[in-house]
Amino acid sequence: MVEAHLSWAKAQGVGLIQRLPPLLDDEARRLVEAGVLATSWIPFRSLIQIDRAIAAVVGGAPERVFRELGLHSATANLAGAYKKFVTEEPHRFFAQMARLHERFQNFGRSVYERTGDRAGRMRVDGYEEYSPIFCVSGLGYYEGALRMMKVPGPVRGLEVSCQCAGHEACVFELSW
């Protein structure tokens, strides 16, 4: 995730990555300067800090940047190393993604529920740390995954419940 977000930032302009370190604490700065290994666990707070710094350096509406980071993460990861996870059946993809949650994140739980022929609900809970930045980026990821599957569309995503607002879980309604 961090690597995909940094690659998006690099594509936005020469020198953008070099402008991030002053906005980061030591741990996040090391991740940006030294790079991220595919096997590394990244602290949640570092991911959020890096995303916040990217949005600050890019400028404009931060929510747009966070959503773009999620879209790019889906495109980069699902076209590359995780291409085998993309199916032409969105329900199967999201159910599989929910089951694999703990393989990619060492926090929280994820459950997918089919709610219609071309609709579903992703529920994410049990996070000890959470941020609206992660939610917006996650929504962008879900939408990007649907676009990678070339669903008939239109692709729609909406967060209807959020731990950041005091709810029990973050719940994303998806339709295509």
Structure notes:
The protein folds into 2 domains: about 1-75; about 85-175, Alpha-Beta Complex (H-NOX domain), CATH 3.90.1520.10. It is about 45% helix and about 15% strand. The chain contains 7 helices and 4 strands; from the N terminus they run H-H-H-H-H-H-E-E-H-E-E. It has helices spanning about 1-10, 25-35, 45-60, 60-80, 90-100, 100-105, 130-150; strands at about 110-115, 120-125, 155-160, 170-175. The chain has a 4-stranded antiparallel sheet with strand order 1-2-4-3, covered by helices on one side.
Task: List the keywords.
alpha+beta, H-NOX domain, 2 domains, 47% helix
Topology at a glance:
Elements: H1 2-11, H2 26-34, H3 44-58, H4 62-79, H5 90-99, H6 101-104, E1 109-116, E2 119-125, H7 132-148, E3 156-161, E4 169-175
Antiparallel strand pairs: 1-2, 2-4, 3-4
Helix pairs in contact: 1-3, 1-4, 2-3, 3-4, 4-7
